[in-house]
Amino acid sequence: MRTYDFAPLWRSSIGFDRLIDLLDETQQRSEDNYPPYNIERLGEDRYQISVALAGFNQDEISVTAEQNVLTVEGRKGDKDQHEYLYQGISARPFKRQFSLADYVQVKSAMVENGLLQIELVREIPEAMKPRRIAIGSGAPGGQITQKAA
């Protein structure tokens, strides 16, 4: 795999620290594909992450949202010791992290048929949404009148 030097971006960029850190982190991270997952776009501001967790109970899974990071962790409880002749279903502990954009909130998480489904919604505050500004026109006498939008 190629490695890229992001030092020139640091010298000429202001306010993009988080983006550059994410690029640098993904470059250095060793690729672990366990557990497999899908990320779906359900609508303009709705998303769903599906994580395949065969063999894990609901109480063995932890979902945490902190700042802009969603963390899914799983640890199998060693309640029953089994003697496997062949074990093809992995039950190893895992920690999978997802970076969330600003204003993306976790709405729900549920386990069904071996899939953990996490619903995400981007909710932009009203103050941050674009709004139409009425344009006034100069009227005789120095008063400004506004046209209805």
TrEMBL record:
Keywords: Stress response. PROSITE patterns: SHSP (PS01031). The keyword Transport does not apply. Residues 28-138 form the SHSP domain. Gene3D superfamilies: 2.60.40.790. It holds the Pfam family HSP20. It comes from the Bacteria. This is Hsp20 family protein. The lineage of its organism: Bacteria, Pseudomonadati, Pseudomonadota, Alphaproteobacteria, Hyphomicrobiales.
